Model the fold of this input.
Amino acid sequence: METEQVADAVAERRERLIALSREIWDRPQTAFEETDAAERLVRALADRGFDVEVGVGGVETGFVARYGEGDPVVGTMGEYDALPGLSQRAAATREPVEAGAPGHGCGHNLFGVGSLGGAFAVADAIDAGAEGTVVYVGTPAEEAGAGKVYLARAGAFDDVDALVAWHPGWYNAPTKGSCLAVNGFEVTVRGESAHAAAAPEAGRSALDGIQLLNTAVEYMREHVPDPVRLHYVITEGGDAANVVPPEATAEYLVRAPSRELVEEVSDWFRQAARGAALMADVDVDVTQTSGVYGVRPNETLGDAIRSTMADLGPFEIDGADAALADDLRASLGDVSGAVATLDPEHREAARDAAYFTEPIDALDAGTTGSYSTDSGDVSQIVPLGRMTTATFPVGTPLHSWQAVAASGSTGVEGMLYAAKTIGGTLVRLLEDPDLLASVVAEFEDRGGAAGYESPMPADADPYELLGVERPGFDPDFGGNVTTVERAGDD
Done:
């Protein structure tokens, strides 16, 4: 099947895919609570004939859907969690739907549905005679909780030969760079309360323990390699200045370019926490709340994605969406800094456009970005090709109200473009054994999957770690949908 045929398969489902993305946008839910989005995606996959397992890895809103038979097995994945506090209407002024409510500031409503459209196009190719299987993995809680880590720990990606995924952005390009691995920690200190003026000697301040640990972290910064990043925030420090705080809590992140370095610095951090507790004469608990690998690039897949984009060419935003796109772009003000990240030949075109949709080469080849993503764990298990497409006006920062507004309006054209690119690239992998062999060979040359160990302990439960109640997600799908039983369930 040619790229043009894949694009036609996506275009035939245009209105349904747009409607689905907006239904998810209208009902934003945060990490591990995305029951509405998961149910809509699972039903769409089941209706198309995919066999779906729900509740994979003990994550109720995580699922794996399969279509076809035998090898090769190609796949994609979708995110669908929203961000807290980013509620916003599809308008060019700051206007929450509900103050303080969540919103899709990273475009994950588009992410989940764009990948879905790509998977459907591959299923069409299989129906037309292409040999193999296509897999769609529903991956919740990217923004908080690293849901892919738990699905990876459960083997959700183990039999996939190559996977292509994307993320909303403001230009069309493959992603060839890496990023930082990270560990997250929650530190809880317990002391003794007392009147801070009348009987300070009777108290032991939990807040002192946290502050001493933070001082230690500041001194650590001098003696870690430059790429290492250490962050912290005090989430609970006491209730009144005249009461010695009996309990205090803080959150910490340790980032580095490799898992090995993250673990090395994390061990030092744990020692610092014990030392701070000794100095303050308090008790301390250090709980690892998250952990992910950096992304392992696959430039062969990146080149295949770029080739598919070249076949597709640019796309247009027109009609009422064009006017809204212009207004959203104007609301951003000066975006020259963002435009400067483009190669010189494209800067002028992007500077004067609401949307910049010309496909371009990867901007990050050979670099390590200062962000972290749970896609890193997937890339350690299966060759992963990544890309971004123009779902937002030029220069739009992620996690902004403008990103929320575009995700519910003008961003659908970039979502459909992602579906076409994913579908076209995956079909090429099914039909071109030499290309797939080259993708796998690069993956093996970069270390393969043999050395992967989950960064989270086998008994780590994301709901407990995040303090999120299990949503009890077990709708009656029927037919070709099964729910995976969790360990300990009757």
In short: The mean pLDDT is 96. The domain at 3-179+294-483 is CATH 3.40.630.10 (Aminopeptidase). Residues 429 and 437 are 9 Å apart (CA to CA). The longest strand covers residues 181-190.
